[in-house]
Please model this.
Amino acid sequence: MDISELQKRLAGRRIFHAYIVTGSDPEDRARAGALIARAAVCSGAGAAPCGTCRDCVKAQKGVHPDIETVRREEKGKEHTVDSIRALRARAGIMPNEAEKSVHIIEDADFMNLQAQNAMLKTLEEPPEHAVFVLLAENPLKLIPTVRSRCETVTLPPRAGETECPEAAEAIINAFGSGDDLALVRALAPVKKLDRAGLAELIGAMRARAVRSLGPKELLKLSDTLDEAEKLCAANVNAGHVSGLMLGSLCHTK
Model:
């Protein structure tokens, strides 16, 4: 789901219980998280957020009692299990003013494994009134079970970056055709992507592969993308990920 689709859903007051907001720019992630928060607490009529109701005004000023942002204690440190357990306890309390409470976790991809497991328990049995927004540059650092319980919002790439849906289409088409030269060309732009872009590309490739490839090719691609995700989670650079894809998918070896 991209930002335009998110805005449409929020306007129609379709609020999911948990989101992962991913993109390379932390300010963009924060803005998207704030948009979700305003829509969730909005008490006005019509499209959300209305921008004029008491709850929207307080949210815009950053003083709404039912919106909280959880930050790491220090840059470079992880979110700990204790901080996530404390978040879960607060989320269990009924909102003060709005119908929902919103809990935004900055740098959610810096939750350690214990913290992620605590987050998973929260997402498996979320309070009906709570909305969780996980801001993450690299969502692949989140365990699959956490990702599967959230709606992922992928923000637009920065100017000059490859558009991942089109790049995914080109890679899948080249792989499916057996044209290794076309595959080399299709994979070339991958080297320029950041971690969020790689995550978006891998997701787009999985979606298109199901529609375009036969069982044997689909299995081979799936194994390759699994390995690519592991590299991304380990913060390996995009050039190595591109090389892995080329080495695994090339028909002539």
